[in-house]
Every structure is written in structure tokens, then in C-alpha cells.
Amino acid sequence: MKSFKFLAMSVMIGSAVAFTSACGQTGGEKGAESSEENKQLEGDIAIDGSSTVYPIMEAVGEEYMAAQPGVKVSVGLSGTGGGFEKFTKGETDLSNASRPIKDEEKKAAEEAGIEIQEFELAYDGLSVVINKENDWVDHLTVEELQKMWVNDGKTKKWSDIREGWPEEEIKFFSPGHDSGTFDYFNEVILEEKELVESATLSEDDNVLVNGVTGDKNAIAYFGYAYYAENKDKLKVVPIDGGNGPVEPNNETVMSGEYAPLSRPLYTYVNVDALKEKEQVRDYVKFTLENAGALAEEVGYVSLKQEEYDEQLKTLEGLK
Q1: How far from chain centre, in Å, is Cα 70?
Q2: pLDDT tens digits, residue range 258-289?
């Protein structure tokens, strides 16, 4: 974060110089525009939702509060589903999500009189990880992932998945049912079938990291940023989606080559909060202007700049 904070501070200083210069020239239109850009705001911004999106929004919040110390940004991580539950009751201004909002969640928002706006923040490559001491898994196919993770009422051993692998029980660690990461894995891997019943579930991805680092026979899946942050302690598994094994990285996630586990990450905004709270509108603008750089800093993949620009136009139209 230090490099981005230095950049942010440089931008702030540059903006201040520009403001002083503009005011010194005429005190007219340019000065008024600069004054608006540097206006200090006050108030609270309540955000909750996906633990996958949390590192991005935590970084955005830190940078924003450095520029706007009068605004308090609180970011929770109760999972995509848990976040939407609060959001559709009007308890939060923004809801982070690692999957699109469901129809029933949209309906709940409508019934509560809440108009919503979706924004994409970055791309993620959902990462399957194993213990560093696991020296037998070189890759997994989608079919093997299904064989491992779908419940069939039996204890799963590595030797059940591929011939020649150890006759040791697999220890599973998975995001909880409120997680958008679980929802995504459920859709593209489990295909709505029941998760293996022996899995340890947690909404906190750090619990999953610790579970895998503590057991040679463990396996887990979570957002790419948590693998990137712990790559010295974990081994990522290349996934064969039908065109050979592919490891998640910036290029394969952006291109969609890392299939079927590449996905966009979102934040949803309460439109009334945008209209009624100046700090919320300013924060969302700041988020879209800086999400790309901050997503890369914390281990995700930036959208193309034109995608952020288009969304800034959408934001401008919400008045």
C-alpha cells in the first residue's frame, strides 16, 4: 500500500497546487471547479458484503479517509449474501459482491423501496490451493474437482480422485454459504449439488488459508488475492477447463483463459444514498477512479480503463 499512498499524496499535493494557481489567476470558473474538487466532506459511509471484495474496498476506504478525514468509512465482510441482506433492509450504502445480485435479493430491495446500481470493480480468478508439502497434485480437471467436492456420502481419499495418489483422506476447507465465492463454485463446479459434508466452512478466508497450511492433505478455494498474499505458504493448482491446465494470473484471468473460475467483482450502491449523501457519491466516484490501481495492489486484476470511464458516466447520470 505504501507505493499507492505515495501516489495518492502526490495527487493531493498536485491538486492543491492547481487549486492555488487557478484561484490566483482569476478566481473564476477554474477556481470554482478546483474548490469543488477539494471540498472537505463529513459523514459516514456504511459498506458490507463479500470477503473477496473486502481487500479492494478496505484499501479504497483507507485512501479515501486520508483525503477526506471528516468521513468515516466502515467496511464489513459478512459475505455476499449477508451483505445483501443488510443492503436490502437499507442498513448499508454499498454492498460488495463476488457474484451478481440474485432475483430474490433484487425483489427484497424493490419491496423496501431501494433502487440499486451495480458497478464492476475488478476481475478475480477463484483459486484452488493445496499444502506446500503436497507433491502429487500437478493439476486438476473440472471433473476431478466435481468428484472431490460433490457429496456422495463417502469419505474422500486422494486415491479416489486419481490413480497413484495417496490413500489419505482429503481435508476440505470452503467459504460458507453466505459467500459469493461459494455461490460461484456451487454454480460452475458443484452444479447446484450438495457440498462434501466433511468440509470446514468459514466466511473468513484467513481461516481457510490456515486450514490448508496446517494439513498436508488439505484443499481449499478462495479469491486470488488471498492466494497472492499467502503464496509463500500455499501452492495454487492449475485447472484444466477443457483446454489444458491453466494457472490463475493477471493475463489468464483477464483473458478468460482461466476457465471456468474467472469472474468479475462488484459493488452495489443504494441510489437514494448517492442522491442524499454527498460523501457517498464522492466515495463511489473515488472508488471507480482508483479501483484499478488498488485492485492490482491487493492481488486482483484491473478492468480496462474504458470500463471504469463508462461507469463514471453512469454515475454522473444518477442525479
Answers
A1: 26
A2: 999 999 999 999 999 999 999 999 999 999 99
Enumerate the H helices of the chain as residue ranges. Answer: 2-25, 29-37, 54-67, 80-87, 103-111, 142-149, 158-161, 180-185, 205-213, 224-229, 250-255, 271-276, 278-298, 305-317
Angstrom distances, CA of residue 186 to CA of 72, 78, 99, 191: 36, 19, 12, 6
Contact predicate 131/218, CB 8 Å:
yes
Q: Tell me the pLDDT tens digit for each residue of 65-90.
A: 999 999 999 999 999 999 999 999 99
Domain 40-123+264-317 sits in CATH 3.40.50.150: no
Residues of each domain in the chain carrying CATH 3.40.190.10: 40-123+264-317, 127-260
CATH topology of domain 127-260: D-Maltodextrin-Binding Protein; domain 2 (3.40.190)
Instruction: Classify 265 as helix, strand or coil.
Output: strand
